Automatic annotation (TrEMBL):
EC identifiers of the protein: 2.7.13.3
Organism: Liquorilactobacillus capillatus DSM 19910
Official protein name in the record: histidine kinase
Keyword Translocase: no
Key word ATP-binding present: yes
Amino acid sequence: MNWYHEPVTIFLKNNRVFLIILTALCLAIVLSAIQILGYQRQKKEIAILSSKLQAVVRGDEAGHLLLEPDDPYYELARAINGVQSMQRDISKDFTLQQRGYLSLLEYLTIGVLVLDQDQKIYLSNHAMSDLMGRELNVKGQLFVKEVRTYELSRLIEKTFETHQDQHHEIKIDATSKNVDAHVVYVPVSARHFLVMALLYDITELKEIERMQMDFVGNVSHELKTPITAITGFTETLLQGAMDDKQTREEFLKIVYQESLKLGELVEDILSLARIDSKPQLNLTSLKIYEFIEDILTTFQPELEKKAIKVALQIPVTAEVNVDKNKLRHVVNNLIQNGIKYNQAGGQLWINVQISQKDWNLSIKDNGYGIAKDEQERIFERFYRVDTSRSRQNGGTGLGLAVVQEYVKAMSGTIKVRSQVGVGSTFTVTFPLELKDDLG
């Protein structure tokens, strides 16, 4: 029996070894397959994560990564999702801020031109285009091709050369505007910088300065004339002319007339100063007929001297809401001119009409009249239509300028209609409802 059992035993032992080897081989194959599948899955997930990070860097809009909580890359995916959300929020904030800055830049009245370090236009605003007289919103163009004012180009070039801010008042060739130009060096980083040109329009300020200088010059000239006359005739009297009665009386009359002119000029100048310094209104209800009639009594001697007749065309019961003192100055001046520049035996018509929203006062004469080309200038300070006649009648050239300022102070308008040799009509119009606070 032993001979039979030995082969069986050997066979079983051999089969067991074979099964063990086969099982081990199968396990190895399965493990390898699992590892290969796991590697491929990890490679795929890494590719997805890498693609996602690249999208975040580019700023592309994409959905978040969704992985199972037990996935080894779950926390990394969450971190990438967080970075994407943060990047999206930062991008939105930046976009909103950029839009706000650009909008603010467009609404600035200061001209702004920004250049990069290659001397190319980075951005500019509408005010800069207006000042330069041409569209400058040409990003990427060299500034020398677009800025066609030598003085400004020189300031910009000097800033690029020296890296120092430049400042100068210049005149823009294309628009003839005076500007206060600041060219600023703006370092952005160790290797990068910008140059910003800021232009402040000072054309109006320059015009005001010119007008002030003209005004001072005109005042000095106008004051010099009566002062010279008073000084000269007084000196002549003191040197012995006063012993001659006829000469003394003649010279004293001239001195008196010149002193009246001097006083009138000073009063007109003070009136302009009061208008500028105190624009507030002191409103009161006024019966316009009685008001005009009262003013006319003060001119009665002058009216009788030139035999001028006055016709009032004013509703007796009409009432208006005005600043009494300012209106008195306006009416006084217009009536005075109607007498001064009227002929002997002339007429003066004073008319008041009231409508639903406003009322107007017109003073008409049949005197010398004003040429059409001079009618727009009569409200300028120190302007005289006929210098010799104005001086003869004691005009200062400021009366109508003062009238216009008072009319404006009461939110009104003044117009003139005139014809040489026929006469002039001055019409002032005021709103029925005035506010005592002009601000």
